[in-house]
Amino acid sequence: MAAIYSGIYLKLKSNKTAWEDKLKLARFAWISHQCVLPNKEQVLLDWVSHTLVSSYNKKLKLEDEFVEKLWVYLDNIIHSKRLQDLIRSGKTVGLSFSVAQVINKRLSEACSEKTQQNIGTVLSCSSGILSTPSLSIIYTTKCELLVDLLSKLSKLACQQLASEDAVGSQLFSVLQLAFAQYLPFQRQQTNLIRVFGLVTSHLLQPCLLLRHLLTVRSWTQADDNHVRQHLSREIQSQIETLLQAGLFQPELFSSYKEELLPEQHKRKGGFKTVLLPVNTVQSKLGSDLCEPALHGAVVASSVSLLYKLFLDSFCKAENHLVCFHMFSRLFGCLRLSDLQEEGRSDGLSPVDWSTELLALEELLSLVLSNDIYNVASDRIRHKEVQFGFYRKLAQMLLTYSQSSIPAWFRCLKLLMSLNHLIVEPDLDDLVSSAWIDAEASEPRTKKPQEALISTIFQIYSKLRQFPRLFEEVLTVICRPAVDGLRPPVFSAGLTVKLRECLLELPPNQILDILCLFVEKCQALIIPAVEGSIDMALKLMSVCSVLHAFLFNMRSLDDVTPSPVVLRTQRLMANIQKGITQPLMELLQAPRREEGKSELWLRKASDAALLLVYTWVEVDSLFGISCSKYVSPTAEIAGTEPAARHCSFSAFLPGVKEQCWRTVMELASRFTSTSKYCLELLALQRMKMMLMQTEADLQALQHAAAFILESGRSTMSRGESEPWDGDISAVTELSYPTAHWHLIMSNLTILLPYISLKDVDYIANVLLETLMLAKAQEAATDQEPSISIGKISLGLIHSSLLPEMKVLHCAFLTHLIHQFAMVLPTATRDSVDLPLQQLSVANIPWHEEILTPWKTADLLEVPSENKLPKNELSLSWKTLEKVAQCIVLLAQNGCPVILKERQLQRCLGLLEIISLLKLDSFLPSDCTRCFLVLLSLLVNTKASVSCSKLLLLKLLSTCLHVLRCLQAGRSASSVFRVLHASDVLEAVMASQFTASKFFTDVLTVPVWAQYLHEVQEFLENFLQVIIERRQSAKLNLEKFMSFLASCRPDTGAAKSKDWKNWNPAAEQLLLTAFTTLCHVVTRHLQQLPEKKLHSADVLSALLEPVVLQMVRTVEHGLQSNTPNQILPVAFIPSVTTLLKADLSHPVKKDWQKEPSGILEQPRIKLYQEFYSQILKELPCAGSNLQFLQPALQFLTVFCSVPELYPGKETAVMVVFAIKKLLAGPAITTQVIRSMEMELTEVLVQVLGNCSAEEFYAIMRLVLQGLEVRNVWQQKAKEVLSAVTLTRLLLSCPLSGDKEKAFWFASPQIITALALQTKEACQDQSLISIIVIPILETVAALLRQGEGVLVNPHHVSLAFSILLTVPLDHLKTEDYRGVFMGVHEVLFSIVQCHPKVLFKAAPSFLSSFHRLVVSVMHEGCQKGDGGNTDEFEVTLKCAHLVERMYTHIAAEMEDFTVFSAFIVAQYVTELQKVTLHPAVKTHLTEGIYHILDLCIERDIKFLNASLPAGVREVFKDLYNDYNHYHKAKKHGEEKYTA
């Protein structure tokens, strides 16, 4: 051995040995057991370390390739299991510090070369060193090396993020490890100035750049998922922790204060330190921070972070001035600060502006949320130093207006929230640039703009300075517009805010504003409006403000003070005489048609009619609601002739009829506000006439016709855009939307007074807009504005349309016409086709609606349509003829061929039908609709080139709508024109014909859905036939004979068109057989004893069907491919057959009488089917369409144990289920979907099995719970056994079986605990094993109440709860684990209270883990977080609150632990900032625990808690006394 030792050592040291040989020798020495060197591992580590160091120090000249091999060798040693075992056994193995220097040097070279090739091995070495405590000493004991490593790694990470290459996980994993090593070291340092120097010198710049790049990176699928989802967030968090602890330690506050408030310290005798922390940080944000292209963005994102960390450390009431000065210094780092200097207006691009303003917004948000600015304190103590700074900031923002950037509005809003006086001197500029003249058309800009103006409204409303604000608004409006057109003054959102403010204001202030606008309009605008576009625009703005105020102010009523009423009367008279009347006269003046006059005419017309409509509406409302109000038109109206009340001139008696005609002609030329206002005036006229005792019907008809006719031409163009609901903002493209909104909103008023022709027009437009809306639904769904499609969909979804029977009927007529239009051109002219006959225009389909209607003459109903009582009307005769035609065409087999595009159109129309309230159809409409759908099913056929899936979807939808029609109240009307058997035969015959297309799509989900719809349709229709009791026997007999004539075993059906039978038709036939048997059998079971004759008749009818069904099943099983899964339709068929056989009256002792109903061949069929199911069950994967019916068959089969073939027992069924649950495709979601069916099978199996069979089943379960399954990576075996255990707990057990199960329960709990311990080491097993185990343990503890008497067995559950992880989980996994742990705890609390008190520490530890996890998940996140994640956290917080409440209410023994529970809670609370909603739940819960605390507990907590935690507890206890305790005492006062 000595020779071996000396030889290797000498060869490694020798200069004569080639380096390649040395490396081979070193590798051999490491892995070989024959080479015995004293301290071999350390010797080899020293050799490779020394060689690498010598190479980098230039003492050895080695090729780069060999150096790389040395790194690989070092990496292999560091990561070897041998080294880890040695270290674990306590042997000391270390590296020299020079290795750390070499690693840092290599990383430094990679930084300077800007290439990350060939550093993977070095990074791997770093990872191994940092993750091994005995090796990481080389960094942790020399902090300069660790800081240098962090700096280099951060720079490398920045380079990788800045490049276009995909981001890998290796570098970021090492970086995260380096942070994890550095942060504890930083916390332990006592020389904070040294730490500050290290951080600012080496780490501040790379960390800020890295954080910025991580924040702004657009992650792609190519990037590593772990980095994207976890490491990036974790590293950002670590950077914030590093900067917080390195730059803003409480001990450094005096240095910050000295630098930021030099005047105070000069007065106290000069500076104490030379450290200038703010200046140092500012200098590091200079130009050398990063490359120039990124510099501005990095500084902008960094200053808000630094300020947040500064405030987190130092923000207290006495330090607010220091915090402000820090804000001003950090603001000085932004490029915006340059704009405050005179003569500096360096142009910033829109992107730069956005970045800078976002940073400013975050800074101002921090100032506001931390109450840095106290107005009184700043004015009295600090000579308004803060006010002056914010004032300059506001001036700069308004000087350089950026109304296209959302953050600009938010910055101004924050300044207004700080103190409105900051912006008050520039209020006119604010109103102009942020409101009246702002170009904020995009939704992302409009929202913050509305938020700013809403804040202004709120502030001036509370200050009762609304008139002052609107003075400035009026001033801005009266200025020349910045560009040609101004946006509307009030958007929909602002109007809502204005309404809220106006309801709070005194009426006199509102009247002041209105009078101000009216006076300015009369004096300045009206005299100069003629011919002036600018004045017309100002007039429109003023009128829109008057409209907004008058429409949204509080109405006058009988309790309004008389002076207010009189002043309002004067205002209304002033508006009428001083504005509306002069404007109307101006508009009627003759003028030459000139191009330039068009715009001012349009705007003047819009303004005039908007104000007229507003005046009329408000005047009418005041007259109705306030008896003291006298309309200004009352006296004039009294002297006018009565006829005048029917025309528009009745609204403004001072305006002549001729003037109105001229203005109406003028307004009709413009599809804008003026035209829309004329429609509103016509509607208002109708309302006023309807309020009179005797309405003028002719005038009402004319008004309704005028409204419809007004927009008919624009609606026919089909061009429109959304409208926000603002009358003053109606444009040429939004007018159709506004017009349609007016009609749809007032249909109940208009409909009784329009002709049938107009009803048809409305129905036609409604259908056309719906067809467009279905295509555009996804695109417009997110928009808050009104669109024509949304309006039409709103009417269809409402309950109003069925009440408007005439319109409902007309809409259906147009819908049927559209179906007829889908037909090919060649067949469209054929009047014999059913769809053509149903869409004939001259048939009065709505006669049954109009005949009883008193005002039928209004709708032009011909008198000759009135028929004798017993004579069928023309519409019903037509329906009868169409029905016969459909049946005849189906029998003759002459379908119309439809192409794919036509199928798509049909599908779209079917979707519109399905939106209607089918239950509300009248008998004739129900029948028409049924015939349309029937004709579509039986008289049409898809061309060969069509998509099969599309055709299946069309047929499924058609059958679904037919089924919905059958459920309606008029369903029986169909049988007036059709025999039930004809319908069933035609439908099934057409489906058999169509099925030849589907032979290659029998495994897709759409086929299964189609079969389900066929089954549902048949079931409903057959049920209706039986319930009607009219020719039920005849109809069923005909349908049964039709089905019996279809013989798959002969290869052809009775009908000559079905030349070759196919599997699809076979499945359809089986579905029909199954449904028929199911419906008839269910009816037989429900028949009373008196009707046994009917039962015998139906049973006799059913027998041939059953026999035919058996033959079909046997034929299908014979023709089924051996390795192919059973067709979906077969399983329910056999299940139904078996149910029918077992429910027969002679089923008792059937096994002794093979000649009975259950014949021997039938038994053989069931047994073969059972064997086939068991064989296929484990291979079915996650195919629920097979699994659910298969398990339902097993449930019925296992209910009769005598049916088991040969020597098979119940154990075989459980074994098959166990194999199924262990399949690779099985997930917890799949198990949940078939849990009910699995439970039903096991109930039958366990209920009918012997004790010996049950023992075998238990052995199967326990084998699956063995821990070796996890070791052998058979996770699904464990999932299978755990699921079976939980299912067994759902089954009722008794006698020996129950004893056997609970005898094995301790073994089960122990096995589950061991499985959990192993599974928790692999995060991928959380959802597969851990969550199901928790659910099973909870169920076991609940069922074991009073049975599990040994406390130790219950206590084992706590070992499971304390093992499962609750952090770093995916949202779904976290939810499952949390719910599972909570359910186990709740089961112990409710079912095992005696065990609970003995194991109180374990219970409290387990529950505290839940509380801590909720606190960490419920932290406030800077990016707002994920909505789904937050919902889960909120649910978990609610459960924690419930547990706290339960502990306080039910568990008296836990009173002694109340102080301990509170201490745990506040200790954790001090570390986090909770989201308000989460905090509410947790606080409510802990209040109930505080109810248990006595005075001694409170004193103990105040004395024993650490300083920071004590402050949190005091705040909590004060809130408890103020809110919860007071409320509780208040409730107790009224409690008996």
What would you note in describing this structure?
The protein is mainly alpha-helical and 1536 residues long. Helices cover 70% and strands 0% of the residues. It contains 73 helices and two strands. It has a two-stranded parallel ribbon with strand order 1-2. Helix 22 runs parallel beside helix 24 and helix 60 (1251-1264) packs parallel to helix 63 (1295-1319). The radius of gyration is 42 Å and the shape is globular. The termini are far apart. Mean pLDDT is 82; it is low at 1-6, 638-646, 852-870, 1049-1059, 1145-1157 and 1530-1536.
Taking the alpha carbons of the first and last residues, their distance comes to 94 Å
Helix and strand content put the structural class at mainly alpha
Helix residue percentage: 55-70%
Radius of gyration: 42 Å
Stretches where pLDDT falls below 50 for ≥5 residues? 1-6, 638-646, 852-870, 1049-1059, 1145-1157, 1530-1536
Beta-strand content: under 5%
Oligomeric state: single chain
**Number of β-strand runs:** 2
Tally of contiguous helical segments = 73
Mean pLDDT rating:
82
- What does the largest sheet look like? 2 strands, parallel
Coarse morphology: globular
Strand order of the largest sheet: 1-2
